[in-house]
Amino acid sequence: MIIITNPIKFGTDGWRAIIAKDFTFDNVRICAQALSEYMKSNNLASRGLVIGYDNRFASEDFAATTAEVAAGNSIKVYLSPKSIPTPEVSYGVLLKKAGAGVVITASHNPAMYNGFKIKSADGTSASTEIIAEIEKNIERIFKTGETNRVPLEKAVKTGIVEYWDIDGLYKKQMTKFVDITKLKKAKLKIIVDSMYGAGTGYFKSLLAGGDIEIIEINSERNPAFPDINPEPIAVNLKKLTETVKREKANLGLATDGDADRIGIVDENGNFITQLEVFALLTLYLMEVRGERGEIIKTVTTSKMIDRLGDMFHVHVSETPVGFKYVAPLMLEKNALIGGEESGGYGFRGHVAERDAVLAGLYFIDFMVSTGKTPAQLLEYLFSKVGQHYYDRRDVKFPVSDRQNIIRRLERIKPCEVAGVKVAKIDAADGFRFALQDDSWLLIRFSGTEPIMRIYAEASTLSQVHKILDAGREMVGM
Question: Beta strand pairing status for 295-298 and 189-193?
């Protein structure tokens, strides 16, 4: 007798799996049915469901499948007619006061993956409590295989599924946060790398018609993501850095596959790390705009945030990795900014969700308001908080080795790491070693892939590399 195991497991932000292996139309229907039942049991079904999707292979078809199942459960659906950024779906949930949202996307994962992200009624990443309830439904439905469905054409004709283009409303929302007219007048040349993703065209359409020049690369739809993974980190941005240098541009911006994460390259073609960008955006909001409010960061983010909190007399809260932990605190505390190491930043007054488009506009405004280049802004930040350097190494491992690696890390209690005494060890999310000179090492596992991530921050780049080497030695890889 063959026993088929349920492959649908939600990670840090949604369920992601390999297309045609586990990410199939049948399994997407199961997810949609489980979400529909969650909405009905929590009195959310009458508020409707917003559905969007990215540029991956067959994303529009998986989105249509999700809409058919929701319609089969008598839930009104607002379905995007084209690919859109994840934060646009979140904003759509708020506009419609919907009960939930779904984005068909695997975010930054390789081309072979697709995914099913769920947004709560607040427009945020679904909490662990919501996901736990939906996963219980999935387990039961997986065994029975029973899902409800109305064919899309019929659902559209009856009006239970409505195509809704949110683009204009979302772009209008962006103009509430920055003076677009001022930015258009800036004599800047900016290279935008959309990484073949859903962020294509957004900066250009918002800023076109003035002195600013926007040059797009990797802006066509190509589900193969040739030569890159759609994650805006240095290793994937060689074309962007080369284009910035060749065009003598002032700035390079990159958005990931679903445009909720951003990567930034300075005028010299140097990548500004995600931790530096988080600190720069925080400094911009508090010093240039004069705003105040709590800062929410994850365990993988920088000590620079703590320094800025002390400097501007605002409280800093720390959460595990994942915006599903950041967002509730942002809402509870009306936080000014929330951010994580992956390059995702959320802002007060918008949605409590990562938004690469707004982050990019804020960064451009920082440049225009101060007259500084990105490299000069980084120097200015370091003059305030001291020099901080950061890097991350991703280590693949056989799935069968996971528990052995965890047990090894649980046993290790080093007195020092890379020649610096250990001040504190915690396991709030992974294994973190705080060192006496304020540097740190963190080892944690991806929630969606068989990858172990090793993070480090220190006052010099050479020390960062020594700490990363020490972390790799700890796990025996």
Answer: unpaired
What is the CB-side half-sphere exposure of residue 256 using CA atoms within 13 A? 28
Three-class secondary structure assignment of 316-354: EEEECCCHHHHHHHHHHHCCCEEECCCCCEEECCCCCCC
Whose CA is closest to 155, among 41, 49, 26, 23?
49
Residue 370 one-letter amino acid:
T
Length of the chain, please? 477
CA of 246: how far to CAs of 9, 191, 226, in Å? 44, 11, 21
CA angle, corner 115, sides to 141 and 158, nearest 5? 65
DSSP state of 448: S
Strand, helix or coil for residue 452: strand
Query: Which one of 2.40.50.140, 3.40.120.10, 3.30.830.10, 3.40.50.1820 gives the CATH number of domain 185-385?
Result: 3.40.120.10
On whether the pTM is more than 0.70, the answer is: yes
| AA identity, residue 260 | D
* pLDDT, tens only, 83-133: 999 999 999 999 999 999 999 999 999 999 999 999 999 999 999 999 999
